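Reopening this ticket.

The earlier resolution said the output was attached, but the attachment link was broken on my side. Pasting everything inline this time so it's all in one place.
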Amino acid sequence: MMDVIRFGTDGWRGKIAEDYTFDNVRRCAQGFAEFLLAGGLGGRKVVVGHDRRFDSEHFAAASAEVLAGNGFSVLLTDGPSPTPTISFAIGHEQACGGINITASHNPGTDNGFKVRDSNGAAIAPDKLKQIEAAIPADLAKVRHTPFARALEQGSIRTFDPAPAYAEQIRRMLDLDALKRAPLKVLFDPMWGNGAGWLDRLLGGGRIEIVEIHSERNPLFPEMLRPEPIRPNVDAGLRATVEHKADGLIITDGDADRVGFGDEKGNFINQLQVYGLLALYMLEVRKLRGAIVKTLSTTSMLDKLGEKYNVPVHSTGVGFKYVAPKMIETDALIGGEESGGFAFRGHVPERDGILAGLFLLDMMVRLERKPSELVKYLYRQVGAEYFYDRIDLRLDPDQPGQREAAFARVTAARPESIAGLKVTARDDTDGFKFCMEDGGWLLVRFSGTEPIIRVYCETTHGDKVRAILEDGVRIAGLPRG
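Inline output:
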C-alpha cells in the first residue's frame, strides 16, 4: 500500500521526494480523472499548469500523461503560469476542469496538486472527498499515455494562457489610465509566477515599475516562504523606501494572493487590504453586490456592508467555501485572510495580479498614497482595526498532539480574553471567540500543514499581543 493522500483546504501538498513523488502525483491525477469520468465528462478538455518550484513542469507533464491515458484532451501550459491565468483558461477554453502543480506559499521544500472545476474555481469539500476516494491505492490502476506519444497523437497540446488572460484584465479595468499615472511602483513577485506581469500590463507608459525577486529560484531567498506576510515581505518593504516608490505590490509564489506596502515601507496587512478592495468596489466604482468572506478575515467588511446596504456572507476558511458562495450569490467580491481575493465578472478564484491592479487604480482615482488610503478606510468604518496571527507548529514526533490540542480548544469556554468579554463562539471552521469590541480570536487547525493558527482582530491596539497569548494558552502548545 502506498501513502494515503488527503486533500486539505486547497488541494494536496507534500514534501518533495518524501511523500510528494511522481508516483503519488500520478495517483492523484488518476483520482481526478475518475472523478471527471464519473461525472460524464470523458473526452473533454482539461487544463494543466504549474509554478516555478523544483520539477513542477515535470510533475505537470506526469499529470498530463495520466489524463491523456484516461481519454481526456489535455491543454498543458507552455511554461510556469500564474494560477489566475490557469483558472481563467479553464473557462476560456471550455474545459471541464484543471490541475495546477503548485504549493502556493509553502516553503521551497514542498510542492502541491490543486484541482479546479469547469468555472476555474476551487472544488467544493464534498467533491474533494469524492476525488480522494477515487485515488487508487497503488500504480496498478493508473492509466497513462507516454508524453511523446500523447503529443504526437494530439491528446496533449501545449498552449500559452497569457494572451487571453491579459485581454480579460483589460476588460476589468482601464489599464491606459493606469499607464498614464505619475507613479513609481515596487513589485515583488517573490521569485514566482507573477514575475513580469505588471510590466507586461502597464509597461510603456508614464508609470514606472521596479521589479525585484523576478528570477526563478525554488529556494526563495530573502524570505522563509513566498507568502505575502511578514517577515517574507520585509525585503520588498526596504526596497520600496530605497527606490522612493509610491507603494509596494507583492504576489505570492503562484500569484493568486496579494500583499501591499505603503510609501513609508510599512506593511498593509491582508485584512486592511480586503477592507480597501471592498471600499474600492463600493465607493470608488459605485458597484453593488454581496461580499463573501471567510470567518478569519476582517469585521470591517460587516461595517461596510451596513454602510452600503449590501449583504455580507461568512464561510469556512478556503476558496473551496468562498467560490461556491460567490457563484450562489453573484457576489461582488470574495476573499480570505491569506490575501486571496476574487471579483465578479472574472473567475471565482483568487487573483493577486488583478487585486494589485485594483489597489493601484484606487490610489490613482482617489489621488491618495497607500498610507492615506488606510486612514480613509478607517474613517469609513468608524474605528482603527488591529490584526496579527501566530502559527504554532505541531511536533511530528509527538503522536496525538493534534488530537489533544483539538480537545482542549473544543472544551474551552473563556468568559473573557485579554480582559474583553466573550460574547459568542463560532465553530464553523476552527474556534472563533467573538469579543465585546467587535473583535475576535480564532484558533484553527490548518488543513494543509501541521500547524495551528491563532488569529485576532481588535479595535484595541494595546491588546493584540495579550489576545494572541490567550489563544496560545487555549491551544496549550509551546511557541515556536
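Reporter confirms the inline version is readable. The CA atoms of residues 330 and 443 lie 30 Å apart. The mean pLDDT is 96.
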